[in-house]
């Protein structure tokens, strides 16, 4: 598909093209030129954290395109991001399959005849599996033409490797032998940006006979591998991409065409705000909240998402909190995970630079009408949680405004509270 012909996709063709090339590098690629493309497009324009990307996806890049290992190592070194697991390739596999050296393979089978030589296993991979995985089409065709029972070798586990190998002739050979795509094959297509193959799958496979195929099941792969093209392909083939497509701010034009009304059968999965939080983009989050219809439990659920991810996205949490208080939201509506906002705020780790910052937000919530006698899933009231978590500033606020009495406070909390009052020079 030519994405430049789609009005909502054309502005992001550079994003699509660079990621497609990144997952399908060739040993001949000029890496200095490509590095400039990565910096100009992905880093400077789209603000992709490439160090984090290579750390998390480096293994996948090598596992599905090992012939470009030197090119990937160049990028890992430049961005100081080495994947936690390295991949080794044994001598025989390098010699025969990595570069599809058919002549060397012919010499090898003189003393190691077919088919036994195909099953000799070194470093957990058989030669024939390596042939499939590295897309060694010439060797593959030679084996096919010289083995009467060749078709009996073909099975779904090898087909998954062939999809990693990205050779369409080999893929067609499996399809002719009634080996069909499964969920792992589809996931590999998406992860490795094989747009042509993915479009072929969407066009030619009867999805009614493919019960495992639900676009939402592949969102994690689409997001972590930055496959914006997969979103557009699914949409063009009339498959549901809303609301999860908002993990990409680049779907703004697509979303503006109209988001369908969503059911509440699964509030989290159907919440546009659950998905937009995954974009980690506060401006996009604000745009979605103020532009598209949302439910109050969605916004309170967004707050829950931010609190659960606070360790990795602390700055984003506080940006969301500031925006939250600009909205006219009922603070006594449960989020889609089931927590009330006043309870959820107590799960925020204390800010070391401003230890009472969480109390400030809790007090703001109480001023908006939050019920502090509401109970969590364990039966504790918000007041009891304030005591257990030493939210003394909140407790003092409640006492000073005669919203609670000392009788509502645990005895051990009262002792600690007295010391707090002395330290802060506060008189009740």
Describe the structure.
This is DUF3447 domain-containing protein. It comes from Trichomonas vaginalis (strain ATCC PRA-98 / G3). The chain has a domain at 340-428. It is built from 24 helices and no strands. The protein has helices at 13-23, 31-45, 50-64, 69-78, 91-98, 102-111, 127-133, 137-145, 156-165, 168-176, 183-191, 195-204, 219-224, 228-236, 252-256, 272-276, 282-291, 296-308, 314-324, 341-344, 357-367, 382-388, 392-400, 411-424.
Could you write a compact summary of the structure shown?
This protein is mainly alpha-helical and 428 residues long. The chain has 24 helices and no strands. The radius of gyration is 28 Å and the shape is elongated.
Task: Using brief descriptors, characterize the structure shown.
elongated; 428 residues; mainly alpha; Ankyrin_rpt-contain_sf; 0% strand; DUF3447 domain-containing protein; 53% helix
């Amino acid at each position: 598909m030519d994405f430049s012909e789609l009005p909502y996709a054309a502005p992001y063709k550079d994003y699509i093209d660079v990621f497609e090339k990144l997952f399908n590098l060739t040993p001949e690629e000029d890496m200095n030129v490509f590095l400039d493309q990565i910096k100009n497009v992905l880093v400077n324009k789209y603000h992709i954290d490439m160090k984090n990307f290579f750390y998390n996806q480096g293994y996948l890049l090598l596992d599905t395109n090992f012939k470009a290992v030197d090119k990937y190592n160049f990028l890992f070194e430049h961005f100081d991001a080495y994947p936690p697991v390295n991949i080794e390739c044994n001598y025989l596999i390098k010699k025969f399959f990595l570069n599809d050296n058919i002549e060397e393979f012919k010499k090898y089978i003189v003393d190691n005849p077919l088919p036994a030589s195909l099953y000799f296993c070194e470093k957990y991979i058989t030669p024939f599996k390596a042939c499939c995985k590295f897309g060694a089409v010439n060797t593959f065709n030679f084996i096919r033409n010289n083995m009467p029972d060749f078709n009996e070798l073909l099975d779904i586990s090898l087909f998954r490797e062939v999809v990693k190998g990205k050779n369409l002739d080999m893929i067609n050979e499996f399809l002719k032998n009634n080996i069909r795509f499964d969920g792992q094959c589809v996931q590999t297509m998406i992860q490795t940006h094989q747009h042509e193959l993915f479009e072929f799958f969407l066009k030619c496979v009867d999805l009614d006979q493919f019960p495992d195929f639900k676009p939402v099941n592949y969102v994690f792969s689409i997001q972590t591998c930055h496959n914006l093209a997969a979103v557009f392909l699914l949409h063009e083939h009339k498959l549901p991409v809303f609301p999860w497509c908002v993990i990409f701010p680049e779907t703004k034009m697509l979303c503006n065409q109209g988001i369908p009304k969503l059911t509440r059968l699964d509030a989290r999965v159907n919440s546009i705000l659950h998905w937009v939080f995954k974009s980690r983009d506060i401006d996009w989050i604000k745009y979605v909240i103020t532009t598209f219809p949302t439910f109050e439990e969605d916004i309170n659920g967004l707050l829950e998402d931010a609190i659960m991810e606070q360790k990795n996205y602390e700055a984003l949490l506080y940006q969301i909190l500031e925006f939250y208080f600009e909205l006219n939201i009922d603070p006594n509506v449960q989020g889609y995970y089931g927590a009330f906002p006043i309870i959820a705020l107590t799960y925020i780790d204390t800010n070391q630079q401003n230890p009472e910052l969480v109390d400030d937000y809790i007090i703001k919530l109480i001023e908006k009408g939050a019920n502090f006698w509401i109970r969590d899933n364990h039966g504790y009231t918000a007041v009891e949680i304030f005591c257990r978590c030493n939210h003394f500033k909140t407790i003092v606020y409640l006492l000073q405004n005669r919203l609670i009495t000392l009788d509502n406070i645990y005895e051990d909390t009262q002792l600690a509270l007295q010391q707090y009052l002395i330290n802060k020079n506060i008189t009740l």
